[in-house]
Amino acid sequence: MPLPVPVLPEGVDPAWLPPAAFRAIGGRRTLIRGSAPLVETVHGEVVQACRRFGGRVVRGAPDGGAYDLALALGAEGPEPLGEEGFTCAREGGTTTVTASGGRGLLYGLFHVVRLGDDAFRGERAREVHRPALALRMLDHWDNVAVHPVMGQVERGYAGGSLFWRDGSARGELDRVRAYGRLLAACGINAVSVNNVNVHAAEARLLTDRIGEVADIAAALRPYGIRTHLSVSFAAPVTLGGLPTADPLDGAVRDWWAGATRRVYEAIPDFGGYVVKADSEGQPGPFAYGRSHAEGANLLAAALEPFGGTVHWRAFVYDHRQDWRDRTTDRARAAYDHFVPLDGEFAEQAVLQVKHGPMDFQVREPVSPLIGAMPRTRLAVELQATQEYTGQQRHVCWLGPMWSGVLRFRHEHDQSVGELARGGLVAVSNAGGDPFWTGHPLAQANLYTFGRLAWQPDAEPRAVLDEWIKLSFPAAPPQLADGLHAVLDGSWRTYEKYTAPLGVGFMVQPGHHYGPSVDGYEYSPWGTYHFADRDGIGVDRSVATGTGYAGQYPKPWAELYESPDTCPDELLLFFHHVPYGHVLKSGKTVIQHIYDTHFEGVEEVEEARSVWASLAGLVDPARHARVAERYEEQLRGAREWRDQVNSYFFRKSGVPDGRGRRIC
Ligand code: GCV
Asked: Which Enzyme Commission number(s) are listed (predicted)?
């Protein structure tokens, strides 16, 4: 039986799957062969498209006619396709997609949707498509109950949670299924449904509330998405009533084994656990004098009989640092904690590493940990939710930043995309907002994440092009050009008007929106810029600083070690330099700060007017929402410019070389 396509609630945006995206398929004759649960999903998709556009679908044995499209589960070809791969070819007027698993066939269908009419033109040589990374996951930082400070979704800028509301399951399972459909269409195959900061209500999802998670899993399953859960390391104590959560304690091991068995009884294809331990106040193995490998292996052992995985986060650092202590460097922490444990993690344990050493700033170097644990499965974590990049009030398309991270090569000529054997993860930017992501243009980040997780060396601009074509199927060239104009360079624009040259933070403490140059300067969180009257930046060299630069292999360690060779965009992350230091661009640091902040605001003004010119080419509600957010972005960018420029003018006493007014 074909599975009906989920119906979106009135007013909810179809994002990159508007009905018109299926026009090319829907008007043709399609044959679907094979039997597996996800084939019913594929069948349902094609049936709906044909109903809308007048085509025909035949299931099972061919009826003797000719077909424009054949979607078939079949025997493997010369190369293994696995559960998720597919082939696509066109010969004799038929486009054929074959796969050996239902997920592969679903991804093949969405491939044809992306190709549109091109899928049905001329001949196409057989192509094999397989995801580079087996796990492509979104982590939701959704709270079950509304947290007094963080709200329903920690760092959420897209309305409430898709899953939870005021302590209960939200229960809108068709919407969850529609979410799964969008995710499958860009290649995402796993979702963790609750915050890594596990509060009391979330903790119980593991035990007596597992049925609520099972309902979500059932809604996501038809689109090939596996469900994961964030759990608390202290669960044996807080939920199990044991006196300890010591990972080497037999009763603790038994408790996790039993709890995990019950999870799999409820959700047979459950993906596994996500754990934030000994991090920002979350409990962990340090309390028992145990290592993080011992902690992770405890959960890995519980999951192992069922094929599940524990994603153990490497975000471990001292958040109660004394700002006077210049020897402690937060950037060093993950490497210092975890590199000595390389080779000690069980096979079912994946170490999940943030892409940079600090915390999702607009510019950071790639974490040195990613290249330093060859005997450990690593997953790389990105942040689609725009905590530090404009909170979905500012346009900031992160494709170029993520692509730069994934293409970065540590050593042995392996890129980050290749080293991420445990998968690519993003903190989700989606929620209950009718546009899913608060800012309608932030949908592009979610889509780009999925496509880069499938193919980490994909050209981000080509991915953006796909998103534009799918989301706006009838887009005249003027709209596509306009969308590129406002999105392509938006990350660099954001960087220009915020913290300069890789130094990071300078945000309002707590909520992290808007400028506060000294907001974190005397704080325990370890996030400093050390600006004084002579200069700015953090000396992380081996010779005179914290030694962080030495955590990289050559050539990076040498390149970052000296201000003469360090790339401009990371200069202040690695070095404390005088305001008069001349960058490779030929400008002094202080003039660079002034210039980029003026330019950043001008670029937002320009983008705002490009967007205004697109009125009439996009639907009025979307146009109005984006236009309104541009007003806020421009206000915010001016505030950033004026606070940052004034601060450095007052510190340095150096006037702007171009004589512009600095407040
Ligand atoms: C979920 C940053 C964020 C926190 C987040 C943390 C993490 O510190 O500000 O909200 O907590 O990262 O990644 O665990």
From this structure: 3.2.1.139
